[in-house]
Write a structure and sequence with these properties.
Number of domains: 2
Number of strands: 0
Pfam families: DnaJ
Largest sheet: none
Keywords: Repeat, TPR repeat
Protein name: J domain-containing protein
CATH class of the largest domain: Mainly Alpha
Structural class: mainly alpha
Oligomer: single chain
CATH topology of the largest domain: Serine Threonine Protein Phosphatase 5, Tetratricopeptide repeat
InterPro entries: DnaJ_domain (IPR001623), J_dom_sf (IPR036869), TPR-like_helical_dom_sf (IPR011990)
Domain J: 142-213
Radius of gyration: 26 Å
Length: 240
Amino acid sequence: MRPYDADPKVKIVNSAFESARKSYSQRNFEQAVIFFTEAIEKAHVSTKSPLWASLHAQRAQAYRRLHKLEDCLKDCKVAIQTQDDNKTAWTTRASVLIEMGKPEEAEKEMARLLEGTFQNDTMVRHIKEKAEFERRKRKRPNYYEILGVSSIASEMEIKSAYKKRALELHPDRIAKENDQKKSKEYEEKFKATGEALEILTDTMKRKLYDEGYDKEAIEERVRAANRAAHEHQHNGHRHY
């Protein structure tokens, strides 16, 4: 949103606004913040004005680029309180929440927007999917840590580590101790060890895991790849 050129005061605001936009496009984010701040201070408009929301939302973007995340969130809050359908403020806020390690909060907010004003909005949907990805990534087990190997371990090293770990956690060995609580705990660890072996010794699955996907998402993508390969093979035979 661009201020109107109605009077000299607005022209001053307009000049600062345009300078801020130019600085931002040139990736001079510190200067952009200065100009946006000047525009905000000289914009004698209602705090309920869309212009007020727009100036704060765009300054928030500059703050984000400077990694001043708390300042960014404050500006997003002002913009949203002023204009609750300000997409720039909502999407900037969600992106910052993801960067701050709060993907659950970002995902919930984007889901709520998709159910309302921004039902078919591509950007909002993309950020929601990114938040969901980060949430699932944070909750997935660290298979390298489970096996006690590095992320660059060879397949041979992974298999060797699995054998050693599996012997330590084997249910038959723990059953002899007659400790139900410990037995259940070791059973879960034994299962996780098997999952680690399955994922890390399969080239495609390991690649997907290293990219951040969890076990469920990996299996979905493997099934999709297998279906695509089968269809390609089937279509190839039809040409003969």
